[in-house]
Amino acid sequence: MKKELVLKLLIVFVTFALATVAGVAFHEHRHFKETVVVSEDFTEMRWLSDYCPQLKDTFADTPIFVFDSGVEGGSVLYCGGTHPYEPAPALSAFVLMENIKVEKGVVYVIPQCNYSATTMGVQGNAYPSYYTVKTEWGEKQYKIGERNTNPLDQWPDNFTYIHYPSKQAQAYNDLRNLNRCYPGRLDGTLTERVAWAITEFIDKEEIDLSIDCHEASIMYPVVSTYIAHDRAMDIAMMAAMDLTATSFDMKIEQSPKSLRGFTHREWGDYTDTLGVLMETAEPFIDRIVGPMTVDLMMTGQDRFLSYAGDKGLTYAKYDKENNYSWPMNVRVGRHLSGASKVIYYMNQFFPEKEVIASWPSYEELVEHDCGAFLHNPETSNPDRVFSF
Amino acid sequence: MLIESIIHYIYIALAGIFGIMLLVKVFKREKRQGIVYDIVYAYCCVPFLMRLLGIK
Q1: ipTM higher than 0.90?
Q2: Cys staple from A216: which of A82, A85, A279, B55, with CB 3.0 to 4.6 Å?
Q3: Assigned domain for A115 exists
């Protein structure tokens, strides 16, 4: 009897010891702060809770970085981290913020739109929690988050999700998916409140062009693509043609009117902004890949996916020509040049909304990698270093 | 909002109750007496404990 009790106690002890190891890792991930050294053109930092006080002191509150030239012109919003398990958009926002120069108009950057979703890893897929970018001064660490809001912040999931205000029935767990909750509602769930706050921010600041950055699996048709609201189709189509002719392949799709909750649909319908979403290729989230390691996240190289690439089953190039890879610097560069190009064509179509801003291009990222554009927080002006 | 918060706290309380119940079952149960079930019950406590502590 005593021996049995000792064995049970031992089992409980070992289980809880393992749980403690995992719990510490989960706790660290939830509270991990990413650091940015903003460029000299930085003006101020605001919080999303400035536009929706209900978000204050929650894990959904997230910083908004403002780069104002002081010269009257248009305004642009650049968004990363709508789905934090797609890290290239957030990293592109960091590279942008560390190097941006603004000569006319205002550029707003929200690097992590769904901050709560950055506070946990993807459940069930053995995803790594962090990735590092090599720089001349050392390695800089960033986190890989989840697709949806952390259940610790919004839980339990409803049995059904009815999108507001269209009343369209969607997958139940999309109630925690920020890019299914727009335009949002103030008295809704936490994710709907974040969506409402971002829509309110766009409306209140009268932002002319809003860009939402994403990544997609390469066996998904909507990859390497702009998805544009009806009013933004002209600028996105011109940008796609220009990029395809001069730099890299880029497709264009019109935002469907029958599928609700997306940035490219609701931002354009509920505000005056020109809404554009960009997708780049992230083999890491393809269904058929092998071990989901940091290396796969950073290089995009996978043996199983290469078989599909050779048979032409992927919607983004994946062959010998690109070394069966989609490295992080290529994905970051595509977002940065993709954004520059839609801004350029907005300026052409709507001169009254002109924004003149520059940051590293696709070609520069391909040549120098991401680390070359990140600054050392230890040696930088503390007034320009932010951790969040 | 109020109803959402109430449901949230009910679920947190339920997580605690189920966690404690499973822990008790590791030591005292009438059926399935094998060591494998000791491990299963101990393991099943973990997610409830994590949720109760606000970790995962």
Answers
A1: no
A2: A279
A3: yes
